[in-house]
Structures are given as structure tokens and as C-alpha cells.
């Protein structure tokens, strides 16, 4: 193979490899949002879902759900607990999201909002129970006010348990009203109070993503319009963020997620801040007046789109506006005076059809009139190919769209066959965002899909084609991102977790290797003068990194035989005698990672010697290799 290392073919955008986040598979509530209490504000349709009344030693009491819709429509339910006897204990327990993950030595912060009439004297004892019912942490607080007030106590856990539950005992006599019953670990991502699970955000940071797309996915759209994602309801005081049923709350037996709601504890402020923390460009996707077309497909009439348009315009001001703008001022008051530097946003998630096109036109005009430099991401639906895809593609190209969002959940073979997909795309037309993709080991949507090596290797091969065409493809993200091992609807997923642990799949390591080794500019990698894209199972791309002065070669061997390969570098630069090789491969097709073997499939680093401007390496069967060579 020859590498023309001085002939820059395309610039690689810093956004190239990013993250798609959606609250599916308990990704937010029950996942990255570190709240341990399920249904903390009693807003689930079944208001005591997740809660159970408890008595011990003859304790007596009752729990009543109180509706205060008239005063607080966005947080309409509280509970009134009446303690009827001074002896024994009465209370409630909360099961958490498939249990609660508790760590020995960690401090937990228990918070409630409470009020009690004069004359009632009630003490709250919070107890963490392990799966056998033993107490592994406890704290006490006493509500004192007749008005709603927040109370907090911190305590340390004495044991580790992944299926703990929280008991709240009420001792004394009288009545107490409770809401926002919450338990967080003290140690969160950047130790922000009531923040995000540090191990999960760290996995994202370790990918060094170019962008963070949020909040989805189909939840942008909602099953119906009432349950669409509304960013304005996801910011500010946590007890004013209106809970809604999650679009992924589903009745299917194999899809283990009844009682799946969105509390919006992970809301737009948290998304923007997380993007900033991990060095990713924020990419919000907004509802364009259409509910999920796989469900109700409800449409907002064209003459009633104004509130939706206003949400889009206000979001840009919220992200970028100065202190004298309404929404910029609000952002500052929420703790972030500096703008978030929003450069792009998505109009609609995975929409298609005439109804989308007509709404898209109205949105695009309104946004571009006010904010001409904001790039708009336009959906090409879920299709990847076929009539509907071609119609959308042609229409948006004709309309001069900025960036087109293509989705593909396909068999590994499709990924191998499509490594050439972008070779002949129009260089002058819209840029491409490969916004959702993942190789499916069984079939799209099948619960039997596995995050196995066969799929990850096919994605690695396909991604050589993304990178080689970086002048057209500016962004790409695997989807979905997270899944809880005990509560998911969709497979495969990039990162799996339980209540205490998490692991990156083979696919995660492929994504990470691309993101950490993308370079700044593509240079030609040729075999007999032709681009390498699947011939005899070889897929390859090369780039230079102008900042670190390195040549980076990515090579995928999809065959079951080792390939000895030599790269001859045409360049005026000279190279250090030793380079670095990162190898991910030589695994069986069905190799996977798991919570117990989280790095069974993971990259291994070694060194390699150069002979002048030539380097020879053996690429093992079913292997993805990255080679970094430093210029002198
Ligand atoms: O990633 C899972 C779902 O797949 C997304 O919510 C949707 O956009 C697509 O259909």
C-alpha cells in the first residue's frame, strides 16, 4: 500500500465522531442521572409505583395521595402520611430502578420536601436495606415547618449492595406531607450535588467525543405530542420539572421497562454542561410539530406551529444569548453566565414524508432568518435507502440543506458492503451526519441482538469509508448509547451498566479508537493507485494530525487469515524509527464483553519499527489496527 502523506484529500471536522444520547434502556432515570429513588414525586400514573407501605413492631399508619393540580400542575401529587400509633414503626420503602446501587464508605444525601401541621411531631428515619433486609446505612431528620420546606441528612453506607432499597420510617404521632423524596450519592460526575453517575459520564469523556446529540431519538417526538420532549420544562428547579411517561415505557414482555418515566433531572442545562465538560459540541434535536411516526404520528397543524418555532428560537438564545437577553439571563441565573456556543440543531428526529418537508421549511426559514450561522440537521428518516430516502435526500439537497441525518440499523454485511457508500456523494451538496447506526447481529429490533465482535468489526470497516470521505461526512454516532442490564428495550447498545458497574462493548472500543485517532486531515491510502475499500477483506484509511505531527493509519482485516501488509509513505517528512500500534482483534465472531469481563475485547498497544519511510505489519484475522507514526 502507498500513502501519499503530503497530499491532503479532506479536512476531518473536530465533530467527526460523537455521541448519541437518548433516555432509552434506563439511560437517564435509572442510569446516568444518579437519583436512586424511583417515582420520588409521586407523579407516575400509578402514584405509589415503586413504593410500598411498611410496618414493624405493631406500627400503624396510612398513606394518602393528595392531588394539588390546581396549585402546582407541574408537580401535582404529594403524599400525606398519618401516623396512628406511638408504638412500632410505620413507613414506606422504595425499590429504586431495578434496586439501588450502594457503595460501602460512600456518603448518601437523603432529601425530602415536607410540611406538618402544628401539633404533629414526626421524625423521618431513612434506612438503606441490602437484599437480605439488613440495614447498611441510616440517617434521621425532623420536619419542623407547617409550610413546604426541604430537609436533608447525609449518612455513610456500611456495605456495598447492588439491589438495595430505601426505607423511610416515620416515628411519632400526627400527620406529615411529603414530596420529592430523594437519595443521591455524594460522589457524582464533578461532584455536582444531585448530579450524574461519574463512572458512566467518564466512559463518555474517555471517548473524547466531537459532539453530544440529545435528548434523542424518538423521545424528542413522543408517542403523542403531549408527551414530546419540551426543553423549557427540563430546566430550573428540579421540583418544577414536569414528569411525563417515557416514550420507551413499553408493555412488551421481553422489554423489561414498565414504570418508565422522565423526571428531567437530566435536562437541557445538564446536557449542555455535560457536553462542555467532555469537550463535545452540543447538538440538541427539537420536535418539529410531529409525534413519533412509528406510534401516533400526530401532527401540529401548520397554522399552529408558532410555539414549536418559538421553542427553537428561544433555545438558541438560551444557549448563546448574552446577559441582556431573556433566555441568556435565565441561563446565567442557572449558574452558567458563559454561552454554550451552540452551532447546530436538529429539526425533528427521524421524520419523513411531505408533512415533515413542509414543517422543515417553516422551521428552517424562522431559524435562518434570525440565526443564519446555525447549522440545521435535517432527517432522512429511518431508511438508509429506498424510495422515501431518495425523495427526502433529493428534496433537501434541492433546498440547500446544511446537514443530512442518515440512520442505519443493518446486518454486519450491509456495513461491509457500504464502506464505499459516500465515495460518490456530491462534494458540493449538504454534509452528512451518520446520526444513528449499529450493526445488528440478528435483526433490527431483535432482543437477541448481541454487541459482538462480528458487528464491531463490520462497523470498524464501514468507518474507514466515513473517514475517507470526511469532506462529506462531518459527523457520526453509534446508537443507542446506554442500556441497563435489567431494564432495556433496545439492543445492541454501546455501553451497558447495572446499578454499580458498567462496561464498554467491542463497538465502544471501535468508536473510541476512531475518536482518539482521527487526525486533522485525510490523506490517500492506495493499493495500485486505487482507494482501499473491502477488496479481499481489506478496509483502510490514513490521516495526518497537523497538531501532533503524526501519520495515522487505520486498517481492518475482515478475513479469517492474517494479512502481512507494507505501507510505503510518500512524503517530504522523515519519521521516527519507532511507531505505535493499537490492536483490537483476533477474536471470534461472537466475542463480547460483560460486567464480569469488561475488557475481554479491548485495545492492546505495542510498538513497531520503521524502515525509512516504510512500515510492515501483520494484521491478524478479524482485526482492526491503528498505527501512529511520528514525523521528526
Ligand atoms: O436508537 C433507538 C431509536 O432508533 C431512536 O430513538 C430512533 O431515532 C431510531 O428509530
UniProtKB/TrEMBL annotation:
SMART domains assigned: Alpha-L-AF_C (SM00813)
Keyword Hydrolase: yes
Entries under Gene3D superfamilies matching the protein: Galactose-binding domain-like, Glycosidases, Golgi alpha-mannosidase II
Entries under Pfam families matching the protein: Alpha-L-AF_C (PF06964), ASD1_dom (PF22848), CBM_4_9 (PF02018)
Organism field: Mucilaginibacter pankratovii
Protein name, per record: non-reducing end alpha-L-arabinofuranosidase
TM annotation in the entry: none
Domain of life per record: Bacteria
Residue ranges of domain Alpha-L-arabinofuranosidase C-terminal in the record: 435-623
Statement: the UniProt record of this protein carries the keyword Glycoprotein: yes
E.C. code: 3.2.1.55
Main enzyme class: hydrolase
Entry keywords, A to Z: Glycoprotein, Hydrolase, Signal
Reaction(s) catalysed by this chain's protein: Hydrolysis of terminal non-reducing alpha-L-arabinofuranoside residues in alpha-L-arabinosides
Classification via SUPFAM superfamilies: (Trans)glycosidases, Galactose-binding domain-like, Glycosyl hydrolase domain
Family classification: Belongs to the glycosyl hydrolase 51 family.
